[in-house]
Task: inverse folding
């Protein structure tokens, strides 16, 4: 893999990643960013990554967007979506990714509050960590985010015999502890996720994202200069376009996979 050195006077690209861990495409995009912006990633010295926990349900509600399975043509696209999901797992080199949790929606549909899509505690927890990350060990938000994605999309042991992911207080506390927090601090964060300030922070994140042009998750905002219009990228399949826009190296969704041929665009 060839390396491209960044000119000394070129500022880093500021990349804000608005995501919801319940979104499978947010998981795919996060996998790419973890590889490219990590310690041995090709963007490590060229991109300043900021994780921005958000709420997919809030983005869609405020913009009138609908989830794919709730659109009138969803039945006609079922075969495509099934094949597309399997192809993406291979393309993104995340073949151990699990299917959608059985309780993604409740028995009564997308608005059923018993479903994960209406359970906002996990994203409130990450929002609270984001807001106070300067008080926590470096990398806590990154670790907590990675663990949250794994909980929903990778861990078979996190699902019951019916394929449901159960978000209990113990599960959320363990996630915090595995991120590097003490048990006492972990409990404080979990106990605070239903507080008005934390709820407001998550809603404010949604409002900010919508005001800037977001309508779903993941949404990425990029800029290099303070006086330039920021660029917006939606979904997990716009990284090649992002790389082209900012003259960043691109080696496919997994830059460490040797059999990928870089695009000639």
Result:
């Amino acid at each position: 893999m060839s390396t491209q050195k960044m000119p000394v006077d070129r500022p880093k690209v500021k990349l804000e990643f608005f995501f919801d861990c319940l979104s499978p495409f947010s998981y795919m995009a996060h996998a790419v960013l973890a590889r490219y912006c990590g310690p041995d990633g090709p963007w490590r010295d060229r991109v300043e990554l900021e994780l921005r926990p958000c709420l997919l349900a809030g983005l869609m509600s405020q913009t009138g967007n609908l989830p794919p399975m709730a659109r009138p043509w969803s039945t006609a696209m079922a075969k495509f979506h099934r094949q597309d999901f399997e192809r993406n797992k291979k393309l993104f080199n995340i073949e151990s990714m699990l299917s959608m949790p059985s309780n993604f929606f409740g028995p009564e549909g997308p608005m059923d509050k018993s479903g994960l899509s209406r359970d906002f505690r996990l994203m409130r927890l990450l929002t609270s960590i984001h807001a106070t990350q300067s008080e926590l060990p470096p990398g806590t938000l990154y670790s907590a985010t990675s663990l949250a994605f794994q909980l929903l999309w990778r861990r078979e042991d996190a699902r019951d015999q019916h394929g449901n992911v159960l978000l209990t207080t113990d599960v959320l506390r363990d996630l915090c502890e595995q991120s590097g927090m003490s048990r006492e601090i972990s409990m404080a964060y979990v106990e605070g996720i239903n507080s008005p300030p934390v709820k407001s922070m998550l809603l404010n994140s949604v409002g900010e994202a919508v005001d800037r042009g977001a309508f779903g998750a993941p949404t990425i905002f990029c800029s290099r200069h303070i006086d330039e219009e920021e660029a917006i990228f939606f979904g997990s399949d716009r990284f090649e376009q992002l790389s082209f826009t900012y003259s960043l190296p691109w080696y496919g969704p997994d830059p460490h996979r040797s059999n990928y041929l870089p695009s000639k665009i």
Q: What stands out?
A: The chain has one domain: 13-72+85-245. The domain at 13-72+85-245 is CATH 3.40.30.10 (Glutaredoxin). The two ends are 17 Å apart (CA to CA).
